[in-house]
Design a protein that fits this description.
It contains four helices and nine strands, in the order E-H-H-E-E-E-E-H-E-E-E-H-E. By secondary structure, the protein is α+β, with helices and mostly antiparallel strands.
Length: about 170
């Protein structure tokens, strides 16, 4: 049974950066098209444009919904009718933090980072550390302070909030 739910929201500031990236992509595409029409194919430039377009789509076009149940965090990803679910059971969680500090978590031996947020979302990046098949994993997501308060209510007392580690 769902206890709390939240969806990703775009902030104006983040959308401005996305717009600037799209403008740069269009300008670069025009330059590459002119070069191709002049008979000078730059395969590296074309591949870079395709990769950069894919990155923009992945970071901005995918929407996320975050759901808390009694025993797990569920993250739904949606893009063009496709959806994917990512589930973290609370009994596999080792730590969590309402702030993601890159240098702190680099030293913890995490083998896999799962990014489950839109870059257009203006909320704070949070991290949840958990074990999967004996290895340390982390999920990065962007939710409000209210969501984190609800998460803290559902987490067993034995888990340490990593804010105390800074």
């Amino acid at each position: 049974m769902e206890k709390y739910r939240e969806t990703s929201e775009y902030s104006k500031e983040k959308l401005i950066w996305m717009g600037l990236a799209i403008i740069a992509l269009i300008v670069w595409s025009v330059v590459e098209i002119k070069a191709i029409l002049a008979g000078k194919l730059n395969l590296g430039g074309v591949v870079y444009i395709l990769l950069f377009t894919g990155l923009l789509i992945w970071r901005y076009a995918v929407s996320y919904a975050y759901s808390l149940t009694k025993d797990e965090l569920i993250i739904y990803s949606k893009f063009l009718g496709f959806s994917k679910t990512f589930v973290v059971a609370f009994d596999s969680v080792e730590n969590y933090s309402d702030q993601y500090v890159k240098k702190l978590f680099r030293r913890t031996g995490i083998s896999c980072y799962n990014y489950r947020y839109s870059s257009g979302d203006g909320k704070t990046t949070r991290i949840l550390l958990f074990r999967c098949k004996g290895k340390k994993h982390a999920v990065l997501f962007k939710v409000s302070d209210k969501f984190m308060q609800e998460l803290q209510k559902l987490m067993p007392e034995k888990y340490l909030d990593m804010r105390e580690c800074h």
